[in-house]
Amino acid sequence: MAELRISSFENEFVLYFETPESRINAYALASTLVSLADAAKAAGRSLNSAVDIEIVVEAIQSGSFKAKIAALARESGIFTKQQLIAGFTSIVFGVLGNYIYDHTLAKKGDVQVVVNTDEVIVTQGDTKIIVPREIHDATQVVAQNPVFTRAIDQMLASITLDDRVTAFGFAKDLNAAPDLLIPRELLAIRDNFLEEQAKTRVVEENCNLYIVKAIMERSKRKWEFKWHGITISAPIKDPNFYDDFAKHNFTIAPGDEFQVRLAIHQKKDDISGIYTNTSYEILEVYRHISRPRPQALPM
């Protein structure tokens, strides 16, 4: 009997695409990763709205096709892998794996679930999945978030964009094979799923922005910032920000940072199903961080 322990994923796991060749369609991979990132962010916010999850690709390896995924969690605007946050990301990863396996293998029917104090055992045919009770309970919470469930459906649909992918699974590391593979026929959802998605959407992210160009008066004009290494333009819609600025509660200089709630407007690409960013708005400024200023030498 194949046995999978969800807790073994911890803070990293490997996406394993079973293919006859050591390559994968770029659209399928990109859309899968974007959808996984959306699902992780939605799961994180459902469990703790003060923590943001960012998914990063740490390595890619052949042998079918493998992508090593890790999560960075941000609290109070600082990316960290400290013990508290690491524990949170392991729960988010556990929820992702638990929901995906349950969501797909349940299609076979004849599923038996035994809920114990410390763990939940799900048996389907010759497959057994052992889920820590904490992750099982967290999955029940996250599964109520339609943003999360739709992102998972998008992810599963994206995997099947490559006709060569015969199965999909999660592995502990790049040198290990998945304990359990999901066959392609269980990944497939409605053929028209991608077409049914909204053409545009707005997602929100708590993040740090470095000021490049400031607009000093209250207006709809756009500031310029550095965000994830790129320059973006965005107006500040937070009404309290300009009130505080007018009261001289802080001063601003290029290179300073804002911790903000950023609204990201996106448009879906009709071919790949991937959403790309089109414009930005700052909905709320949480904090202003001054860059260190040179100290005047004593005369």
**End-to-end span in angstroms?**
80 Å
Note the total helix count.
Answer: 7
Parts with pLDDT < 50 across at least 5 consecutive residues: 76-84
Secondary-structure class: alpha+beta
Percent helix: 25-40%
Largest sheet data:
6 strands, antiparallel
Q: Kindly estimate the percentage of residues that lie in beta strands according to DSSP.
A: 35-45%
Instruction: Give the mean pLDDT.
Output: 82
Number of DSSP E strands: 15
Report the C-alpha radius of gyration, rounded: 22 Å
How do the SSEs run, as a string of H and E?
A: EEHEEEHEEEHHEEHHEEEHEE
Write a concise synopsis of the structure shown.
This protein is of the alpha+beta class. The protein is built from seven helices and 15 strands.
Quickly list its features.
299 residues; 6-stranded antiparallel beta sheet; 5-stranded antiparallel beta sheet; 7 helices
Model description:
The chain is α+β, with helices and mostly antiparallel strands. It has helices at 26-47, 83-105, 133-142, 146-159, 184-187, 193-196, 239-246, and strands at 2-5, 12-18, 51-62, 65-75, 78-80, 111-115, 119-124, 127-132, 167-171, 181-183, 200-213, 223-227, 230-234, 257-268, 275-289. Strands 2, 3, 4, 5, 9 and 10 form a 6-stranded antiparallel beta sheet that branches. Strands 13-12-11-14-15 form a 5-stranded antiparallel beta sheet. Strands 1-8-7-6 form a 4-stranded mixed beta sheet. The chain is elongated and about 70 Å long. The relative contact order is 0.15.
